């Protein structure tokens, strides 16, 4: 419905402008009454379409935020100190500094997906699917974005999508994406709405880098860290980590992502 209203607004707006120009600057002799009716309708339709489109978007955002709150209530021990949300509030990223955990809540999720800081592997900042900055757990504090000037705005380039891709150590759902801008027509990089979306995405990107560093700093003496290629794997040698993995597997089983047999097999591997 929102897409149809947007299309109606974009399609009828130029027609209304042309009709108004003809009405004010054209020859008014022998102008048929039907032309005034068409002009009135061409002006009224885009106004109504935009109003209704904004109204439906606001209602959808409120509904998605309510769903996020409901989902998060299923993990009462998680206390959010930072909160980022995607366009339309479809996906939320929350941070619990005290427990050193992050949480992803999607509007279609039954349970919140909670991870420890050390489970975060990588964060990528994307403009129109092009990676302009990468923060990796192995190189915390170093931007592998190829030397791009992240805050250097251009006036002539339109950007349709700003997205943050966060990769976690989870073989069932390793990637979470948060869209800070999703505009079909695109926004110029010097527009205030674009700047606001980009700076929020960049702030979240830098925060993830801080969380990865804290996650590595929290590795206990009885845990070992292996480097394999470009990734770092923290082996779950402590009972706390085993419990975390069992909790995640239990959530996946409850949601129907894995079967009871798969759960039992993974549980056996963890417990040994």
Structure in words:
The structure is a single chain. The protein is α+β, with helices and mostly antiparallel strands and 272 residues long. Helices cover 43% and strands 25% of the residues. It is built from 5 helices and 10 strands. It has helices at residues 2-25, 33-72, 192-217, 239-254, 260-271; strands at 82-85, 91-96, 101-106, 113-116, 120-127, 130-136, 158-168, 175-188, 225-228, 231-234. The chain has a 4-stranded antiparallel beta sheet with strand order 1-2-3-4, with helices on both faces. It has a 4-stranded antiparallel beta sheet with strand order 6-5-7-8, covered by helices on one side. Helix 1 packs antiparallel against helix 2 (33-72) and helix 4 packs antiparallel against helix 5 (260-271). The chain crosses the membrane at residues 7-25, 31-48. InterPro entries: SHOCT (IPR018649). This is SHOCT domain-containing protein. Residues 244-270 form the SHOCT domain. Pfam families: SHOCT.
